[in-house]
Amino acid sequence: MNTTTPALEIVDATLELGDGDSRVRALDAVSLTVQPGEFVAIVGPSGSGKSSLLAVAGALSHPDSGSVRVHGTDLATLSKGAAARFRLAHIGFVFQSGNLLPALTAADQLRLASRLAGSRRVDPAAVLDSVGMAHRAKHRPGHLSGGERQRVGIARALVNDPSLLLVDEPTAALDRRRSHEVVQLLADRARDANVAVVMVTHDHDVLEHCDRVLEMVDGSLTGLAHAARRMDSAPPR
Ligand SMILES: Nc1ncnc2c1ncn2[C@@H]1O[C@H](COP(=O)(O)OP(=O)(O)OP(=O)(O)O)[C@@H](O)[C@H]1O
């Protein structure tokens, strides 16, 4: 893996949603570069475009103008099928409540994700262990706490060894202590596995774990003054 290639490079992305009078500029000339191993948080008011940013970064939607590159690949060059394969191979998604399948044990959530991607890169049991969930491998989501579900969700997103992890409100259902644990886990994974993490959050309490905090307002992204976790290795841009 060439570590000088940014994990995510969005240049001047503009995205309009809706029709006629309800047309909204969800992204307005947004540029964002995230390096491997860097943990970036995006904060901002409801409706400011944060989810839209994750959607274009994850090849779930395409900007009307501008470009999005993930680990050097221009997402606009991929067909729908190729984009789906690319997502499975290179991008991990973590959602609010873990988004686990109710019928599957923690271990099977990871095995399924690994099989879907045709991936043998990482041992699912080892990934579950790395998020401190080996002892709950045989539990179904209904028998896990909110924080444990979120850990399994993170492990599932990591099982295909992604270059980029896109995380949407991971602490929404968690108390303060568990919120810190989960975001600390994301920070550790960014550093240890050299994964770029982009996390959307309303939870200002957990921003201390991030390298950079950006604010989205009316579809535009701006930097926030913030005491970063690893200023020496990842200076704010
Ligand atoms: N499918 C859609 N059609 C029309 N407008 C949309 C659509 N999806 C989102 N929007 C609008 O685009 C803008 C950005 O929405 P987005 O979901 O990206 O914001 P957000 O910052 O993630 O909000 P929240 O914090 O509430 O999740 C909002 O004004 C929203 O109303």
TrEMBL record:
ATP-binding among keywords: yes
Domain ABC transporter: 8-237
Pfam families the UniProt entry points to: ABC_tran (PF00005)
Name assigned to this protein: ABC transporter ATP-binding protein
Any one of the GO CC terms: plasma membrane
InterPro entries tied to this protein: AAA+_ATPase (IPR003593), ABC_transporter-like_ATP-bd (IPR003439), ABC_transporter-like_CS (IPR017871), ABC_transpr_LolD-like (IPR015854), MacB-like_ATP-bd (IPR017911), P-loop_NTPase (IPR027417)
SMART domains attached to this UniProt entry: AAA
Keywords of this entry: ATP-binding, Nucleotide-binding, Transport
Highest rank taxon of the organism: Bacteria
Gene Ontology MF: a single term: ATP hydrolysis activity
Classification via Gene3D superfamilies: P-loop containing nucleotide triphosphate hydrolases
